[in-house]
Amino acid sequence: MWSLLLGILLLGGALAPGYVLSYDMVWVPDLALTAEAWGTGSALPRAVPSDAVVAVLDEIVPGALLQKVVLLGSLVVAGAGASALVDGASVAVRLVAASLMVWNPFVVERLVIGHWPVLLGYAVLPWVLVVCRRWSPQSRVWPPGSLPVLLVGGSLSASTGVATGVAALAGGWRRGRTGSNLVLVAMVVAANSPWLVAGLLHSADATSASQAARLFATSDEGLLPGPLAAITLGGIWNAEVVPGTRLGFLAVVGLVLMAALAAFGWAAHRRTPIKGASSLVVCWVVGVGVAVVSWAAPDAIGWLAATLPGGGLLRDGARLLALAAPLTVVLVARGAEALLALAPDRATRVLVAGLLTATPVALLPDAALGSAGRLQAVHYPSVLSDVRAAVQAAPAGDVVVLPFASYRAPEWNGRHKVLDPLPRFLGRAAVINDVLYVDGMPLPGEDPRAASVAEALSRPTAGSRAAALGELGVSVVVSERLPGLASPAVAGRTTFDQGDFLVVEIEQDVRVDAEPSSWVAAMGVAWTVWLALLVSGTSARAVMLFRKNRNTAQ
Fold first, then answer.
1. Are residues 396 and 483 part of one domain?
2. What is the average per-residue pLDDT within 294-318?
3. Of 108-112, 205-209, 250-254, which range is least confident?
4. What 3-state class would DSSP assign to 77?
5. Which of 5, 7, 20, 2 is nearest to 373 (CA)?
6. What is the pLDDT of residue 438?
7. What are the backbone angles phi and psi of residue 430, rounded to the nearest 5°?
8. What's the whole-number mean pLDDT along residues 110-128?
């Protein structure tokens, strides 16, 4: 219940009717199952398998409601997981753990930047560690029935899959249990198979510009240099999403209090060992280690990203800090327990417990109510439904949205920056410009087809642009009239022209190529393995619960 209340307070207006659109967080009423969602498109599979999962689920649950369930559910599950990590402790200690797990810079910054799969993976991490900790070598059943489901839920993107895999291996590896360890590794691979296989298919394009590592490295936050920001679960590269209180004295106070309580907690651990301490330490070292290396040696990360396909997973140095949260939360909670033990009477204990529980909120007050109003649910303009209908009626082929830029700041979204939602809203495969601008510096994209579209749009005449786009498989172009941004004209038949939107069907021959059959087959195998793990885990869990309830009834 406490985690639910914290989640409601943290999200605020984001829980109102409508959609929350912030940076990379783009939810639409009906996300299409396109080749990009399946992992067979031309772009790197950054949204595999998350887009496919959402596209299936929003056929059952409306997209706006599904988004709120995911956001609030992630916070509630994370808080409950923190409480489970300190099971056996008093209610006060469990509340302190839940407060810190839900209300910290990592959660707030990733929420504003729109990394909802990261938050879902973050919520799963403590439960993975708890499930693995509760299993003993004497148990007949391995893995525990809930572990496959947790692994799938924690692997909806590449970086979260890596973090969840590290936690599972750190918590579930058993010395001398070769068979169990092989099963564990197989499950981790199966849970990550969609993006792993899609990444292998795109390996020729899976390197990134080396200079990006400096731009995405763990950053200083106000008075805290990068390593200290990381220890307090902050340090995201994008200064625009950092809460204002992280830039002032409160951040220093938070660091001192966290360090003091963690020191108390470590001293308590020396007297009474923490359950699963080694796995918690491994996760913390990996999470903080990557963050600190990206701050201290970004060129090394850049070389890795430019040389090794998939190395770019490490360029966002602070993203893996999710791994550091479980140990941090446990040590702070144990420290709070030690501090409460010094209280002379019950009234003092209650007062101190209340203060410690409220401390994360007090140190980060501008995170409340949707980061002080930055996260608000909005409604898509009604005209977009007409634009979608015109696009759906166009001949076979993909859509391109102009201006050919990745981000927008729509007036109807409060001028908040967001990845252009129109390509997802239109319900058709789209070619999206993946060139990013960070601090005014352009970072080259990785999708060769997007680069070809950009070249086609640079042709001198509307007719030549249309012909070049048709050769690339584009059959319809949507132009949004934005102040200060011009869009090149494309020849064709106008099917919609109202307000700020123009839809043009390309009348030249459109070359529509099917995805390579080998890619389709490879991804078919990957999705089958992924789904088999989910179904087997769900079934095993259901059987366990049925047997438990039957035994209880008897």
1. yes
2. 91
3. 205-209
4. helix
5. 20
6. 82
7. -125, 150
8. 98
**Taking residues 530-534, what's their average pLDDT?**
96
- 385 lies in a domain? yes
What local confidence, expressed as pLDDT, does residue 540 receive? 76
pLDDT for position 143: 60
* Matching residue, tokens 């999206």: 432
- What pTM value is reported for the model? 0.95
Query: Measured between alpha carbons, how far is 213 from 305 in angstroms, rounded to an integer?
Result: 8
For residues 424 and 491, state if they share a domain. yes
What value, to the nearest 5°, has the Cα angle with vertex 190 and ends 189 and 192?
A: 65
In whole angstroms, give the CA distance from residue 338 to residue 345: 14
If asked whether residues 415 and 484 sit together in one domain, one would say: yes
pLDDT per position as a tens digit, 40-83: 999 989 999 999 999 999 999 999 999 999 999 999 999 999 99
The helix or strand, by DSSP H or E, that contains position 303, with its residue range, turns out to be helix 298-307
Q: Which two tokens stand for residue 73?
A: 């559910």
Res. 382: pLDDT tops 70: yes
* Spatial separation of the C-alpha atoms in residues 167 and 234, rounded to whole Å: 20
Domain residue limits at 297: 204-223+230-237+246-341
Strand partners, 443: 436
Containing H/E element for 503? strand 501-505
- Yes or no: say if 287 and 324 are a contact pair by the CB < 8 Å rule: yes
Residue pointed to by tokens 């929003």: 58
Positive/negative CA dihedral, 276, 277, 278, 279: positive
Q: What is the tally of structural domains in the chain?
A: 2
Other CB atoms within 10 A of residue 263 CB = 13
Question: Strand 398-402 to strand 474-480: parallel, antiparallel, or no bridges (unpaired)?
Answer: parallel
- Which comes out higher in pLDDT, residue 405 or 135? 405
Q: Which of 132-141, 282-291, 441-450 is the least confident region?
A: 132-141
Reading the block at residue 240, the tokens are 């625009």
Overall residue count recorded for the chain in this entry? 554
Q: Is 435 helix (H, G, I), strand (E, B) or coil?
A: coil
DSSP 3-state helix, strand, coil percentages of the chain (rounded to 5)? 60, 10, 30
* Residue 261 CA from chain centroid, whole number: 29
Q: Is the pLDDT of residue 89 over 70?
A: yes
User: What distances in angstroms separate CA 228 from CA 175, 254, 259, 382, one per listed residue?
Assistant: 34, 11, 10, 47
From CA 293, how far away is CA 437, in angstroms rounded?
A: 23
Residue 386 vs residues 261, 390, 393, 426, 495: alpha-carbon distances, Å: 57, 6, 11, 10, 11
**Is 289 within the bounds of a domain?**
yes
The alpha carbon of residue 308 and the mean position of all alpha carbons in its chain are separated, in whole angstroms, by 23
**Residue 448: inside a domain, yes or no?**
yes
Instruction: Check pLDDT > 90 for residue 397.
Output: yes
Q: What is the mean pLDDT of the chain?
A: 94
Smallest CA-to-CA distance from 513 within 417, 440, 449 is with 449
143 contact partners, CB below 8 Å, separation of at least 6? 135, 172, 180, 183, 184, 187
Q: What is the DSSP string of 41-74?
A: SSS--TTTTHHHHHHHHTTTS-HHHHHHHHHHHH
